[in-house]
Amino acid sequence: MQLYNTRTQKKEEFIPHEAGKVKMYTCGPTVYHYAHIGNLRTYIMEDVLEKGLRYLGYDVTRAMNITDVGHLSSDADTGEDKMLSGARREHKTVMEIAKFYTDAFFADCEKLGIQKPAIVVPATSCIETFIQMIEKLVEKGYAYIAGGNVYFDTSKLETYYVFGNMEEEGLAVGVRDSVEEDENKRNKSDFVLWFTKSKFDDQELKWDSLWGVGYPGWHIECSGISVKYLGEYLDIHCGGIDNAFPHHTNEIAQSESYLGHPWCKYWFHVLHLNDARGKMSKSKGDFLTVAYLEEKGYEPLAYRMFCLQSHYRKPLTFTFESLDNAVTSYRKLVARIAALKADGAHDEAGCEALREKFRGALGNDLNTSLALTALYDVLKAKISDSDKLALIGEFDTVLSLGLLDAAEKQRKAAAEPAKMQRPAGVSEAEATEIEELIAKRAAARKAKDWATADAIRDTLAARHIVVTDTPQGIVWKIEA
Ligand code: AMP
Ligand code: ZN
Fold it and tell me: CA-CA distances (angstroms) from residue 262 to 165, 210, 257?
């Protein structure tokens, strides 16, 4: 498999530390709010990576943290604690917030076909590990205590900015106008490993340590959890591109200094989902969630399809129009699969050629749009319908678009009496109201009450609602 590695800034042949086995780590969510669909783009692509590796024959062990402590709202160590601000916003305890949003995150993941990694670890369950790691870093001279906090000393490293294309000066915390400088630091790029003294006197979660009662910094969580659960050699570390600096840069600094040898070979970063205002982010206030898309009538799996249609290393711009296009493609794809009959002879050579194309797409730096093309090729191929269904099921173990289930549902729905289908982009309340009007009009026509029927027709027309009878039942849409 060829995979782009942010650390070397090249596409490279993927060779795990131990042949056939992959240790994979994913930075998990900070559970102070719902995940937005930008966050979920990253988790979708990481999920495809894990499943793609399995499809290509690797035995993958994957771990992910849940950030329930220590993540500050800015890159500076002086920002506000995100969990604390979430708890304050909702008048709940930090642990209540963490539990609620962890569950919400996995519920969203399930709707998007994202499999929960085998190892999921809340940071608060590993405090001892972080403390032990920090102790060793202090012992080895990589960390110092100042103003009550423990800092990592980046001047002890040969290279700190390992993702080479970073503009060092521009990125160094402290040189940005908007970022408050922490006077305890020896170097601008130093970062906190353990907080005891900070401006958060009301920090709810605190643990005892050699350096006093306090809590860990965010970066040490991922180093600690990864080394504890996946060992000293990691093959792939994933995250959104904003994690490359400072988070992953700091993880590498800590882990390699602690271990005394190179730690993770491949760095997989997903580019951002942007909207009209730029990068989708929670700090901008309103952001799009899976629940919002559902409320507007979009199938979550159509959003997954939207993500798979473009490459993970390209920024992706979200608009409802492009999502509508993905919905149309998704529904058409499902309809074509629903039309297949489970019969015909097996053609191994024909299937293998199609598989080869799919494997080639995955092996080409996880080219998911080519993988989708390989799926469409199956539909066009001169093989039996039963071979097609088997291959679609097989490819969908990686793509996870729920294709066979959706096709089966569609087949059943077609056999049932006519039912209205809610168009994408319309809220449930609005759809209910429109459907009631359509039903009233049908009843009025049946009763030959033409005055009522015509009045309703005019109301619908004035709202640009177009009603059509189809073999699958009544469908309607709002024309732009
Ligand atoms: P957080 O919950 O803020 O720690 O972020 C969870 C994951 O989402 C991280 O891997 C981030 O890098 C990633 N992420 C944040 N914003 C975006 C975005 N707009 N598009 C894609 N990924 C993002
Ligand atoms: Zn992380």
Answer: 20, 28, 9
